[in-house]
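Consider the tokenized backbone below.
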């Protein structure tokens, strides 16, 4: 008996040693910093540093589904270095930034990495995924799966009938103006955003639908904006129900493959096997930038229009006044007064798009807190950085014009047709 026990211990030690020898640095970091809580809102900074780059690598932590890429990556040539007025290294350090990619006129003008992360790695998106999900609504309309955003949500998700969402439209979900009560407080363990992913669903009902249909209305639909991650998850269920396709497959079919994302991505799944569509796409930062270019170019992929005429202008315009100073809200996009717009995720994830300057900035990181509302100045500092990039580009354009040089640059069809 004693020999048997010793043999088992030796085998375990050998197996652990073999695993450690074969594991890459990200997996080693993950093993050394495994979260003890399944809720990311309450992980330590070190745990987040480890998991954000490897969210899909431990199935017992979270299951995921692959988003296949194609064989012909969309080119991101290197352009002239962008001479910024700010200390980029200091900015990245204060942001705890893992990656920063600035693309102007289709060329990479600046690319930096931190937190021992690099261009081959994949970082989780958090609520940046919301803008991906809303884009799939546009694709489903273009493909004829959804008739109109004025349709009732319950027409596509029958399990919502009789709930506070029964008479809510797709448009009201997209703009988060359903009027349904929701608490998005990231610091409160009893908030809806902290509880709904761990909800025990009713038998045979999607986990998100099961949780959301028990909520109560606090205002008539269309009259009050409240940020609700759970509603983006409902949008994802709606798209899957309408198309009969998994979200990962549909995103791959409509964007990831035909536009030319360089790496396959993944999408974290909820407890009933559906993509958590308000969150958690793992992708390279360059591919997040390519998503910005896809939107900037009018939703063209492989020469084909993926979205209905006018969808991007409608989706990225201010459709709801928010409680966040300086920001409006479109169809799961944050809007700014100068015509720029953003996909934003907690802990510092973002895609900033400025159509006037043909500018895309993709960034990933791990802020000390989930959002600017929880303390810290990272949110304000990031917006100030975006503004500085805009000023520098304007100065470049002014210099070209005053010198009599042309600023026209030959661009691919995806960047010229809108």
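A designed sequence for it:
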């Amino acid at each position: 008996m004693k020999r048997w026990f010793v043999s088992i211990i030796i085998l375990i030690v050998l197996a652990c040693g073999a695993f450690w020898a074969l594991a890459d640095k990200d997996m080693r970091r993950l093993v050394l910093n495994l979260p003890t809580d399944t809720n990311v809102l309450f992980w330590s900074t070190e745990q987040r540093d480890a998991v954000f780059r490897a969210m899909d690598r431990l199935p017992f932590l979270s299951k995921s589904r692959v988003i296949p890429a194609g064989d012909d990556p969309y080119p991101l040539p290197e352009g002239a270095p962008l001479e910024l007025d700010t200390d980029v290294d200091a900015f990245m350090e204060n942001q705890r930034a893992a990656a920063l990619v600035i693309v102007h006129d289709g060329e990479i003008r600046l690319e930096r990495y931190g937190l021992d992360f690099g261009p081959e790695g994949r970082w989780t998106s958090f609520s940046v995924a919301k803008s991906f999900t809303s884009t799939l609504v546009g694709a489903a309309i273009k493909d004829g799966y959804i008739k109109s955003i004025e349709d009732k949500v319950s027409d596509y998700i029958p399990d919502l009938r009789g709930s506070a969402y029964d008479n809510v439209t797709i448009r009201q979900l997209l703009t988060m103006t359903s009027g349904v009560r929701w608490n998005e407080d990231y610091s409160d363990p009893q908030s809806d955003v902290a509880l709904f992913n761990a909800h025990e669903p009713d038998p045979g009902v999607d986990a998100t639908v099961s949780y959301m249909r028990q909520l109560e209305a606090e205002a008539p639909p269309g009259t009050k904006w409240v940020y609700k991650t759970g509603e983006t998850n409902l949008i994802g269920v709606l798209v899957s129900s309408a198309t009969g396709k998994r979200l990962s497959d549909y995103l791959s079919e409509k964007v990831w493959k035909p536009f030319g994302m360089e790496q396959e991505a993944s999408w974290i799944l909820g407890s009933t096997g559906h993509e958590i569509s308000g969150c958690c796409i793992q992708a390279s930062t360059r591919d997040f930038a390519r998503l910005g270019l896809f939107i900037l170019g009018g939703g063209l992929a492989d020469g084909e229009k993926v979205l209905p005429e006018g969808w991007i202008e409608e989706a990225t315009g201010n459709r709801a006044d928010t409680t966040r100073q300086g920001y409006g809200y479109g169809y799961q996009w944050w809007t700014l007064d100068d015509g720029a717009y953003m996909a934003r995720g907690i802990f510092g994830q973002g895609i900033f798009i400025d159509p006037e300057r043909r500018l895309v900035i993709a960034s990933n990181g791990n802020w000390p807190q989930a959002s600017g509302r929880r303390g810290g100045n990272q949110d304000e500092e990031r917006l100030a950085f975006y503004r500085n990039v805009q000023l520098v580009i304007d100065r470049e354009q002014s210099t070209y014009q005053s010198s009599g040089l042309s600023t026209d640059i030959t661009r691919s069809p995806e960047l010229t047709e809108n």
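Residues 5-20, 407-418 have pLDDT under 50 and may be disordered.
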